[in-house]
Amino acid sequence: MVESLLSVRGVAKSFGGLRVLHDVSLDVVEGGITGLIGPNGSGKSTLFDVITRYQRCDAGRVTFAGEPLDGLAPHAVARRGLIRTFQLTRVFPSLTVAENLLVFARSARARPGGGPAAGKAGGGGEGETRAVELLDVMGLLGLAHREAAGLSYGQQKLLEIAQVLMLGPRLLLLDEPMAGINPGLADEVVDRLKALRTRGMTLLLVEHDIPVLHRLCDQVVVLNAGRVMAGGAPGEVLDDPHVREAFLGE
Ligand code: ADP
Ligand code: MG
Q1: CA distances (Å), origin 233, targets 3, 49, 213
Q2: Would you tell me the Gene Ontology cellular component terms (predicted)?
């Protein structure tokens, strides 16, 4: 059996009396793209919060690269190479595209005792070299000296992904990277994410668009009302009548 890079076992989470996650288990194998789907409010973002330790879970365990993440702070999780983006885009609007990346290089360098993930980003010349490389991978090199505020929403999403790539992730969690992107640029984002997989990156992303899931993902996990209701190859999962009924209202 292939050992998974990320393993979630029996995770439960409540907010007050509201039970948001029930006994959630899933595995992400290294080098692939896993799609997480589910209706609004099914707990996808909360699961990302629990995995990255922005929220504590009430029960269960998350293991990354063979080590439990229990008790770690979010920055310590990130330093191990498990990095996430948020549902709402957060770039620095008045900085240029290139500066938006270099901010991440500096913070990686300044971090005391930064581990291997942080070290990869580096500062100074090394950070600049990496920034250029990542802007190229994300198709933003031609926009390097533009103010981020002048980018389209989709380009800002690509910039946000490039920013977190500066931190040298081993596993990248993307919360709705395609949301609000016009269909023309969505194809580009799909291609850019596939290029990351080719470079050995592992991705777990929240996505709703069925054709995108088919084109992009090696595995799809369905969350419904805080429970995993299906998981497997996109062809099987997305054609499952129970999934279609719950998720697509068919
Ligand atoms: P999804 O990302 O699948 O749309 P969320 O994980 O954002 O779902 O939310 C799942 C449920 O948890 C929703 O009912 C939401 O209102 C609730 N919830 C999420 N975060 C909090 C929080 N910090 N405090 C209270 N309730 C929350
Ligand atoms: Mg969400």
Answers
A1: 18, 25, 10
A2: plasma membrane
- Beta strands, E only, the chain: 4-15, 18-29, 33-37, 59-64, 67-68, 82-84, 171-175, 202-206, 219-224, 227-232
Average pLDDT of every residue of the chain: 88
Distance between CA atoms of residues 16 and 120, nearest Å: 40
Q: Which band of pLDDT confidence, cut at 50, 70 and 90, is reported for residue 216?
A: very high
**Any idea which residue has 């190479």 for tokens?**
81
CB 246 within 8 A of CB 39: yes
Cα–Cα distance for residue pair 167/219, rounded to 1 Å: 25
In this model, does residue 110 exceed pLDDT 70? no
User: pTM higher than 0.90 for the full model?
Assistant: no
Under the phi-then-psi rule, with left for phi > 0, alpha for psi from -120 to 50, and beta for the rest, what region is 12? beta
Kindly tell me the sign of the dihedral angle through the C-alpha atoms of 189, 193, 194, 196: positive
Query: In this structure, which residue's CA is closest to atom 14 in ligand 1?
Result: 41
Could you identify the atom of ligand 1 that is nearest to the CA of residue 206?
2
Residue 107: the pLDDT is: 54
How many CB atoms lie under 10 A from the CB of residue 147? 15
Stretch 23-48: mean pLDDT, rounded? 95
